[in-house]
Amino acid sequence: MKKINGKELKNKIIKYLISQGFKINPHLRLVEQSKDSIRKVHHLKRKEQLRNHSKFLLRNLNLVKNHCVSGKNLDPNKINLELIEINSGSKYEKIFLWWNLIWWSLPYTRPIGRQMRFLLWDIEQDAPFGLIGLQSPPLRSSVRDRFLGLNKDNVDYWINQSLYGQRIGALPPYNELIGGKMVALALTSNEIRERYAEKYDNKRTLLDNRILP
Question: Which InterPro entries match (predicted)?
Answer without folding.
Answer: DruA (IPR025639)
